[in-house]
């Protein structure tokens, strides 16, 4: 019997391309890409209250933009140098609480996120020189220092990809296609995602059990698909976060 209910359940008009969690503000940012209209939009939600801060937010650059990182309640966006290449350029920042643009700089490029904020460089200068940025103003704070400016590690836990035989059969209610499951053992929960073959098509399912093998939650993530999908879920601060049919966001409190 299902005994867990979604804390957040939202469906978007196009696939969610990327998710980013800001640890300090417990904000979940989403990048939604509508390939038919060549339009990218962004959304932000509170993982504490479930409130939507903004959604359907767009920038003047309709398509060649995306999420770079998130820090201290601020979303960092990038543009692309070209439609055919992966190289990023420029930084635009959006405040989560208001959805307002704080600042933009199209000569800077993002390098990585440190515990003290974004580390960036001037893409027009060689050799590349890194410096620490004030995320709320765009001002340079100082040169990058590897020891104090260590990379920021998030608390996101991704599942392991395991042979089905290595997982207790209590937690496998369906036959796992290709003998592969994504699995996390977390406190008293056992979380499993697997593919199963049904009438020559694949389905992807998500299950949450307790340690005794009692089913607490089940969802069909994809049906009638032709190939196996990547990992279906992540854990963050006692929350299970996953996408359903690519455009549905579900968050469960565990």
Any overview of this molecule?
It is a single chain. The protein has 254 residues and is mainly beta. Helix content is 0%, strand content 56%. The protein is built from no helices and 22 strands. The chain has strands at residues 8-11, 16-22, 27-34, 39-46, 52-57, 65-71, 74-80, 88-95, 101-105, 108-114, 117-122, 130-133, 140-143, 156-157, 160-163, 180-186, 189-198, 201-210, 215-225, 233-236, 239-244, 248-253. A five-stranded antiparallel sheet has the order 1-22-21-20-14, with no helix packed on it. Strand 16 and strand 17 form a beta hairpin. The radius of gyration is 20 Å and the shape is globular.
Give the structure's gist in a few sentences.
With 254 residues, the chain is mainly beta. Helix content is 0%, strand content 56%. It is built from no helices and 22 strands.
Question: Which terms would index this structure?
Answer:
254 residues, mainly beta, 22 strands, 56% strand, globular
Question: Which helices and strands occur, and which strands form pairs?
Answer:
Blueprint: E1 8-11, E2 16-22, E3 27-34, E4 39-46, E5 52-57, E6 65-71, E7 74-80, E8 88-95, E9 101-105, E10 108-114, E11 117-122, E12 130-133, E13 140-143, E14 156-157, E15 160-163, E16 180-186, E17 189-198, E18 201-210, E19 215-225, E20 233-236, E21 239-244, E22 248-253
Antiparallel strand pairs: 1-22, 2-3, 3-4, 4-5, 6-7, 7-8, 8-9, 10-11, 11-12, 12-13, 14-20, 15-16, 16-17, 17-18, 18-19, 20-21, 21-22
